[in-house]
């Protein structure tokens, strides 16, 4: 199979067109647990009027009319233990506190909606079916950090969602929830949508800023960090779509209620995008700390009653975990890290006993080889080495020493690149070989897969 064919095969079925009935069925179901972001959605009630009926903009109104100071807002977010939902899981309130709020001059707020990782399809559903919750969350964040201008950077291959968000922005402006002197206060905030062009690398926050400025989307050296030198050289805070969407609930209720729903170090719910060999793939909003076994049950269990083999728990860049480890693990940042992987974006890729680990890793490695921006030598050259060596093993031309060389190349990529794409390419390679080395060795020795062809 050609390399592009591999990528198409890997992605096929994981992220259906957001306008299809299949996409809608992947989020509108009764298998969420204590939903906060998707509660009450039906696909047609995305507009301002319906959002207000669901309690929309009450949090922003409460903050602006009850005398809450920016420090009060940040303190409440810190107390909630809300952590970034885009991958790193950094405490949101702490991140907001890094913004030099009282510094004179322009400051910027950016929403990272550049969702391009295989298996991840939650943010596009939030933007399509509940865009105002993101707008409200961004307005609250802007107030807390003394920011007057914001942008939502939307992935380049979902233009329909960009148009939906633009329409929601117009509704919010007309109703006085955006613009000058919001709700009669002294707070002003202008929010704009920006359409990317589909490059995966622009999900990295500084590459995103470069793209926003009209430049080639390549990561910047850090330091300086965006909080001091971001968009157009000004202080900038960047959060993920789901992170902003989580904020209004905290202020409609309380930080303590939000914390009680999750676990001690990570409050609230999380949207998990489940794909692969399950009966009911889709987005599931559940409290952090929910056992993986429960999440698998919500997704209808294994397709065709087959046996669970492995799970990638946090997007394609997260280390793979074998079934016996995942079935004893809870879905929260610390539990997944203790198991040897990371929660990442919350994209859960489930693999049954019919999946060849060599072919699965080959598809992942091709993705990172194709999406490397080429700026760093370890990533540019290393991802190519990984892909070509795995292709050789898959095609029956592997050598016994290849596994050690693969692990060595992956090790020498990690921590030696400007951004985390190098690590994202290397971690799956090291984890697949660690947990399924015998399967790779069988490919090399017998020139065939350990999985029977009839499966």
Task: Give an account of the 3D structure.
With 455 residues, this protein is an alpha/beta fold. It folds into three domains: 37-261, NADH-ubiquinone oxidoreductase 51kDa subunit (Rossmann fold, 3-Layer(aba) Sandwich), CATH 3.40.50.11540; 269-352, Ubiquitin-like (UB roll) (Roll), CATH 3.10.20; 357-444, NADH-ubiquinone oxidoreductase 51kDa subunit, iron-sulphur binding domain (de novo design (two linked rop proteins), Up-down Bundle). It has helices at residues 3-11, 21-25, 48-53, 58-65, 70-80, 92-97, 123-129, 131-145, 159-174, 205-212, 241-252, 255-261, 292-298, 323-326, 333-339, 357-371, 377-394, 402-413, 421-446, and strands at residues 108-113, 149-154, 190-195, 236-240, 269-276, 282-287, 290-291, 308-312, 321-322, 330-331, 347-352. Strands 6-5-11-8-9 form a five-stranded mixed beta sheet. Strands 3-2-1-4 form a four-stranded parallel beta sheet, with helices on both faces. Strands 7-10 form a two-stranded antiparallel sheet. Helix 18 packs antiparallel against helix 19. The model is unreliable at 1-16 and 18-22 (pLDDT under 50).
- CATH architecture of the largest domain, please? 3-Layer(aba) Sandwich
Give the termini distance in whole angstroms: 19 Å
Major sheet characteristics: 5 strands, mixed
- Biggest sheet strand line-up: 6-5-11-8-9
For this structure, the quaternary state is single chain
H and E order: HHHHHHEHHEHEHEHHEEEHEEHEHEHHHH
Shape, please? globular
Count all strands and give the number.
Answer: 11
CATH topology descriptor of the largest domain:
Rossmann fold
Question: So how many helices?
Answer: 19
Q: What is the alpha-carbon Rg in Å?
A: 22 Å
Task: Identify the CATH homologous superfamily of the largest domain.
Answer: NADH-ubiquinone oxidoreductase 51kDa subunit
């Amino acid at each position: 199979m050609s390399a592009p064919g591999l990528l198409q095969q890997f992605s096929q079925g994981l992220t259906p067109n957001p306008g299809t009935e299949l996409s809608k069925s992947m989020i509108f179901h009764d298998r969420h647990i204590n939903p906060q972001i998707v509660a009450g959605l039906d696909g047609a009630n995305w507009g301002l009027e319906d959002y207000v009926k669901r309690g929309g903009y009450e949090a922003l109104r409460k903050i602006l009319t009850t005398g809450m100071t920016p420090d009060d807002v940040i303190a409440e977010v810190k107390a909630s233990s809300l952590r970034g939902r885009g991958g790193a899981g950094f405490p949101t309130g702490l991140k907001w506190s890094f913004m030099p709020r009282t510094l004179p001059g322009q400051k910027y707020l950016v929403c990272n909606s550049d969702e391009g990782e295989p298996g991840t399809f939650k943010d596009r559903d939030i933007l399509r079916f509940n865009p105002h919750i993101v707008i409200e969350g961004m307005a609250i964040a802007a107030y807390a950090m003394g920011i007057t201008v914001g942008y939502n950077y939307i992935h380049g291959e979902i233009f329909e969602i960009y148009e939906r968000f633009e329409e929601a922005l117009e509704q919010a402006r007309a109703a006085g929830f955006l613009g000058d002197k919001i709700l009669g206060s002294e707070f002003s905030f202008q929010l704009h949508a920006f359409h990317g062009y589909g490059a995966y690398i622009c999900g990295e926050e500084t590459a995103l800023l470069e793209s926003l400025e009209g430049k080639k989307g390549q990561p910047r050296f850090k330091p300086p960090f965006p909080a001091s030198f971001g968009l157009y050289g000004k202080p900038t805070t960047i959060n993920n779509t789901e992170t902003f969407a989580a904020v209004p609930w905290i202020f409609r209720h309380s930080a303590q209620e939000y914390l009680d729903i999750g676990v001690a170090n990570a409050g609230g719910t999380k949207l998990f995008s489940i794909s692969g060999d399950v009966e009911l793939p889709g987005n599931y909003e559940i409290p952090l700390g929910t056992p993986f076994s429960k999440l698998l049950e919500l997704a209808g269990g294994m397709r065709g009653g087959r046996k669970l083999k492995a799970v990638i728990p946090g997007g394609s860049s997260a280390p793979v975990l074998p079934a016996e480890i995942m079935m004893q693990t809870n879905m929260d940042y610390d539990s997944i890290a203790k198991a040897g992987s990371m929660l990442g974006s919350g994209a859960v890729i489930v693999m049954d006993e019919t999946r060849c680990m060599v072919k699965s890793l080959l598809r992942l490695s091709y993705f990172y080889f194709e999406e490397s921006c080429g700026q760093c030598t370890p990533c540019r050259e290393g991802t190519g080495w990984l892909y070509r060596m795995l292709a050789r093993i898959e095609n029956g031309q592997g050598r016994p020493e290849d596994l050690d060389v693969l692990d060595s190349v992956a090790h020498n990529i990690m921590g030696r690149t400007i951004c985390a794409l190098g690590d994202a390419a290397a971690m799956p390679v090291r984890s697949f070989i660690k947990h399924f080395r015998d399967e790779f060795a069988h490919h090399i020795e017998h020139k065939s897969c350990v999985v029977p062809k009839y499966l």
